[in-house]
Amino acid sequence: MSLVFAIFTPVIAALLIPLLYKRVSAIHTGWFVLLIPVALVSLYATYIPPIIDGTTYKDELPWIPSLGLSFISYLDGLSLLFSLLITGIGALVVLYSIFYLDKKKEKLGNFYVYLLLFMSAMLGVVQSDHLISLYFFWELTSISSFLLIGYWYTKDRSRFGALKSMMITVFGGLMMLGGFVILGILGDTYSIRELIAQAPDLVDHKFFVWALVLVLLGAFTKSAQFPFYIWLPDAMEAPTPVSAYLHSATMVKAGLYLVARFTPIFALSEVWVWLVTGIGILTLLWGSFFAVKQTDLKAILAFSTVSQLGLIMSLLGIGSIAYHVTGDLVTTFTFATFAAIFHLMNHATFKGSLFMIAGIVDHETGTRDIRKLGGLMSLMPISFTIALIGSLSMAGVPPFNGFLSKEMFLDAVLNLKNFDLHALDSWWILFPIIAWIASVFTFVYSLYFVFHTFRGKHKPEQLPKAAHEAPVGMLLSPGILASLVVIIFFVPNFFGNTFIKPAVAAIQPLAYQVPADVGFTIKAWHGFDSLAMYMTLGVFLVGYLLFKTIPKWSPIYKTFPTKLSLNGMYDGLMRLGDSGANRFSSIYMTGSIRSYFVYMFTAIIVLLGGTMWIKDAFVISYENLAPIRFFEILISIILIVGTITILVTKSRLTAIIALGAVGYTVALFYILFKAPDLALTQLVIETVSVALFLGAFYHLPQMNKHEKGKEDRGFRLGNFLIALGVGVMVTLIAISSHSQKLIPSISEYYKETVYSEAGGGNIVNVILVDYRGFDTLFEISVLTIASLGIIGMITLRLAKKKGDRKVENK
Amino acid sequence: MTTFLWVIVVLIGVSLLGFLYRLVKGPTTPDRVIALDAIGVGLIALIGLISILFDTGFFLEVILLLAVLSFIGTVAFSKFTEKGEIIQRDRNS
To answer: Which residue windows are transmembrane per the record (chain B) (predicted)?
Structure first.
């Protein structure tokens, strides 16, 4: 089976789901769906042994070959680890959802179609070697995530959360596309492999940092880093299997994947190191601090996810320092990468199980509000055990896997002291301090999550349902994950050798050729000389004290003003975009045609005048000018007087008559310039137009409808200036174009051939019907359309408007 | 001969200006309509002169047309000033 086909398997299967859902209603649709991730996880498992040996696999499906666009599935340690996470946890989530979602009440067809679409998209993201196809799958995850968050679309909060996550992740996705395009242009290739190979040549280019920042924006929005994490807590309105799958284990790690994947390209720049590390550690602190404030079980977990993602992000940042050092220090910093991938795996296990437990609590008690819950330990002992394992692992307590990765995290942060770039010697200490404080808060919210739910006083009167243990099927998936949490603690090096080392070798290709070169072993016990151990002990001690005194210090959360919070800013920004755009368009779109004319004429003056001025095109030449005759002066005076009359007259009838006079004078000009056909036509047309004006005269309103009785249009300086400007402009252009004629006229040809070729004496008419008869044909069409239109307007009066003035010719 | 013709052209031009003054000044609509009619006649004369001056027969059609139009226009204006409309629907009124 080809690897590209494997990516698309879930989507192809998704096509069949609605059919199965409709036809086979006796069996829960989830059972059919379950086959797909199980099949895929077994497929990917067969790749584990060769990948450990350092083999990589590549499979290509051309998409648009002429543009060099293809779906490339590239499987190395990193993408294999993610693929296994996606399919493995996908299988567990589908199993869980079978028991979580009701067969009759829920629209299961929709749910599983979205879920499978998402699974394909995620597999595509982690296996794509082509930047554009990576972006394609990236947006597909955003869209399927939007659909899944808004699954209960009748709820306002769901729709709000779906829209918010869509806005933020698509914003980041578009930024990322920009970064990709810059990269593709710089490297002249869209293949990530080839870009990595030529990264040292790209790093000094001035647009390199742009690409870096834009790609990071994509990663930060997707992975819910500061300040873009705000969509994640609102995405908790999704069904719990979705939260467990997308918002803890897979989609939010797409950003981490992106950072890890692009480390070999961007880590050569210091901007990358500090942005990734700094934002990561800030997110870690921020998320862990605000997790204690939450009262909703899933909101606690959401903030905890944010915080843990920040932890992994900062570890990836520290790991990328390895590109800036030499010798033994390379190993010191690649250790951070190792820790990052290890924690990424651990987080997927314990956070997935915790989300499922939160879902079980919700399912069995009817609420997720931690203030109403309590004392469920004896009622739900198995859930309690799983929750305890997950929480303690999250808090970093032995004997669970979180402890191992947390220790490695503290070690890695302490290693920063060895990096002496940019006078870090005094500032590096900030990182361990922040990491330690964040670990304390992590400890506090982990205990808060499990003990405030399962210990304390049981309050049955506040619960919508009587609490009892969940069915076995529901507990199966979190149980498997929780047992993994424990198993990883006891045999960490098996997982390290199998999954982590190939991934580290993929992220740090300069340091390691094959996964076997990665020489780290995970130890639960570091000995008494390890500073990290004392820090962990301090975390336990201070964390426990803080946990016991939560009611005493929690009011500090209330001092934080809502308006200044990031959510407040997001809402404000959305409102501003909405009402601001409205206000802007209502300012300039007045609905009055007068102002639109002002815009258009001003544009003529500014654009034409500006172009002429910039190009220095104003030329006045006195060559080729005909002598001015007395007669022409006379007619011009008449023309000017008539025009001014139209402008200044107070009566409309006078204006119409003066317009007629102007038309006749123009006809006189035609005669003077020897154009008898034009003069004939002009006279007839002018007469007809004047007659039409007169016909419409009776129905026209007064000239100035705002001042009844006073038929004065008034004088507006702005209009006068614009009119003057347009007139001057057109005159100047006419003079300039006459002064610099570049091409001779073609009329000589017509003169010579009018009789010999076309057999006519009237050159104008021959041009109209012979040389250029096409124009005439369509002028005839115009007249036909106009007359038909007039008939239509007069006779077809479909809608009678209210208060329409009755038009009666009397 | 040519000088004589040009003098006439100037005279007609001056009279056209006079008609135009009446057209602009008014004071009533019939004054303006008469002025327009006179302008039409003036134009006819002018075009005739120009035809002679240019030594061409192509503009004689224009003279005919102008005469017809001037007549139709004046009638239309007159009818309009009298009844407020040009083409009646109810022919009995």
So the answer is: 6-24, 33-52, 58-77
